[in-house]
Amino acid sequence: xxxxxxxxxxxxxxxxxxxxxxxxxxxxxxxxxxxxxxxxxxxxxxxxxxxxxxxxxxxxxxxxxxxxxxxxxxxxxxxxxxxxxxxxxxxxxxxxxxxxxxxxxxxxxxxxxxxxxxxxxxxxxxxxxxxxxxxxxxxxxxxxxxxxxxxxxxxxxxxxxxxxxxxxxxxxxxxxxxxxxxxxxxxxxxxxxxxxxxxxxxxxxxxxxxxxxxxxxxxxxx
Length: 222
Known about the structure:
By secondary structure, this protein is mainly α. It is built from twelve helices and two strands. GO terms for molecular function: actin filament binding.
């Protein structure tokens, strides 16, 4: 795999690739990387979580939030990328700079995978599909409740309240499957067969997804 292929991955996959490679050095920073990955997706107003690079303006906003006093070009020159004048930056380039790692070392490190991990990742994708359905419906109802009036607005508000408090059957089913698959991936990981970064990310996604589950049924508070 070439570095250009890594930078073409979505932000989440760039973060996982980095953590897999540098878990020994940066595993303790996984939560920070998770949160910053979310920030990067927010800054990418056009592509969101489906994006892979920030433009120069978005990158400067990231640098400001992270108290980095340099330009995109300066960072890319320091990383010795192929075209340092190209004014976009991948999330993994930001991580390499922050943790003082090199592209060369990144590409030397093994990534690894196994069947249990792949199944767990697929199960979590199914969970994310259900969460997206819920979030899309919430946005629709919130818009109706805020912009409407009278009976229509009240109905939308009531539907929104019901949506937030309802037992989400399809999501719960997907979560049960994901929890089982993640446990299997964890077991494989304890045997040294799963990349630590990918496994940590799965566990973190599962924790986040449980916020949509009623607490009396094993969910956690948002």
